[in-house]
Amino acid sequence: MTVTTQAPAAPVAAPRRFRVTWRVLVLGLFGLLFLLSVTRVVSGADDITSGGTMAAALALAVPIGLAGLGGLWSERSGVVNIGLEGMMILGTWFGAWGALVSGNPWVGVVAGALGGAAGGLLHAIATVGFGVDHIVSGVAINILGLGATKFLSSAVFADMRGGGDTQSPRVPSMGTFSVPGVGEPLRALEQTHWFFLSDLAGVLRGLTQNVSYFTIVAILLVPLTYWILWKTAFGLRLRACGERPVAAESLGVNVYFHKYVAVIVSGLLAGLGGAFLSLVAAGIYREGQTGGRGFIGLATLIFGNYRPTPLAGGALLFGYTDSLQLRQGGASVHALLFTMALLLAGAAVYLLLGRGRSRAALVTGVIAVLVFLIYWQTDSVPEQFTTATPHIVTLLVLALASQRLRMPAADGLPYRRGQGS
């Protein structure tokens, strides 16, 4: 009798997940710049890649990016933080106050960070310490930040010369940095309006000339956050608390400690974003100057799928759309309709040829045609639509990014010590 054995089937390799790395992000930015260059040539809207627009986009992206980084720390530990807006508000007020009482803007930076960290501590006490629902606590922080700063302004700034119940006097200015020897050559190349080269020169000029030192610090916080959360033992434990807190506790991890630290750092980063608004962007504290940037920071967190590298790209996207509506309004935003049509057409081709999703490709292609027809048949965008562009982009990003969202498994879930025993 012959016994035959069947060879074990070869293991099927799991499909590789697409990951947004720094290399992919840089290639994507160059591709986007190419599309913007095509748009500039076709539409004649030279301002969409000018150095002034790029400088404004970078400045507008900083507070959004800092709020998103703050949300990243908190959510990676398992604590939902929709109180970022309130923490940013505290950062705007304390940043201006610290700079005014000391005469040093960097003292204002520290004060703004501590003000946001205080909001983060309150959120941690409520959610981690007492088990309050994370959404309820976050809403309370937002209301508290708005009310506390209104009271403090009437008690402190109203008695200062140039201040009032809703604003502070002018704060000391912060220094800027420019890469020497490249400003004028880049400006000259930008003014030639050559395809792609002048657009690249505009981008480089905006990113290398008159950049606030605060902006440089904020940019460095992105790789620092990645290194701490993904390359250190502390970061591994913190992320474990957001994925499997019971398993982390069984391995000796102090889950409460790591959650407290993460939420406090979250508030600190949001406070830095608020301090940037009052110290750098405006040079003065004004009531309501955050303008919902804490919530847009949460959108960048979702856009980046809870990772710092694509989060930074999302912040630049929001900052760029905001800078366009502030500089040239309807003309520049109208030109972006052409870019959007090109992006949608490329997405339709990718869905059809790369993913084999013919129905999704058809829908995307139809939308691309409709956007192109709107661009072709109009000369400008209504002012009401222009001012709402950053918020519309936020809604679109949330709608699209939610399809691939991979949030921490225990994000928002209540945790009590010993609950797994």
Characterization of this structure:
There is one protein chain. Helix content is 69%, strand content 1%. The chain is mostly helical. The protein has a domain at 45-329. A two-stranded antiparallel ribbon has the order 1-2. Helix 3 (84-102) packs across helix 11 (255-281). The mean pLDDT is 87.
Structural key phrases:
mainly alpha, 421 residues, 17 helices, 1% strand, two-stranded antiparallel ribbon
What shape does the CA trace take?
globular
**H/E series, N to C?**
HHHHHEHHEHHHHHHHHHH
Rg from Cα: 24 Å
| Tally of separate helices | 17
Which class do the helix and strand fractions yield?
A: mainly alpha
Strand order of the largest sheet: 1-2
Which SSEs are present, and which pair or pack?
Layout: H1 22-43, H2 51-76, H3 84-102, H4 105-129, H5 134-156, E1 176-177, H6 183-190, H7 197-208, E2 211-212, H8 213-231, H9 233-243, H10 245-250, H11 255-281, H12 293-303, H13 308-327, H14 330-354, H15 358-377, H16 383-387, H17 389-401
Antiparallel strand pairs: 1-2
Helix pairs in contact: 1-14, 2-7, 2-8, 2-11, 2-12, 2-13, 3-4, 3-5, 3-11, 3-12, 4-5, 4-11, 6-7, 8-9, 9-11, 12-13, 12-17, 13-17, 14-15
Summarize this entry quickly:
The protein is mainly α and 421 residues long. It contains 17 helices and 2 strands.
